[in-house]
């Protein structure tokens, strides 16, 4: 069902290892078993040939502003971070 999808909306992610207030998500932290890293999202996109990914339900606990996410988007093709009220056009 995911193969060659036009859009994948994906939540339950963490972006980077550094959390709010400089806390670091260690390599053996249990959240790594429950959430998708950005690297996981990229692998899913590539594996299934998904054209566009929108990462949703971004948590403030990760310590990044929306401007940080917009700057990060520039490093990846067709990966976007959602914002409240965002509309996804197909």
Strand and helix layout:
Blueprint: E1 7-10, E2 13-14, H1 31-34, E3 36-37, H2 38-48, E4 52-55, H3 66-73, E5 79-81
Could you give the count of β-strands?
Answer: 5
User: Helix proportion of residues, in percent?
Assistant: 25-40%
> What would you call the structural class?
alpha/beta
Strand order of the largest sheet: 1-4-5
Order of helices and strands: EEHEHEHE
Number of H- or I-type helical stretches: 3
| Parts with pLDDT < 50 across at least 5 consecutive residues | none
Strand content: 15-25%
The major pleated sheet works out as: 3 strands, parallel
Overall geometry? globular
Give Rg in angstroms. 13 Å
Provide the residue-averaged pLDDT.
Answer: 91
End-to-end distance, in Å?
17 Å
Total tally of structural domains: 1
What attributes does this structure have?
17% strand; 90 residues; two-stranded parallel ribbon; 5 strands; globular; alpha/beta
Give an overview of the whole structure:
There is one protein chain. This protein has one domain (about 5-80). The protein is about 25% helix and about 15% strand. The chain is built from 3 helices and 5 strands, in the order ββαβαβαβ. About 5% of the residues are buried.
Write a compact overview of the structure shown.
The protein is α/β, with parallel strands linked by helices. 26% of the residues lie in helices and 17% in strands.
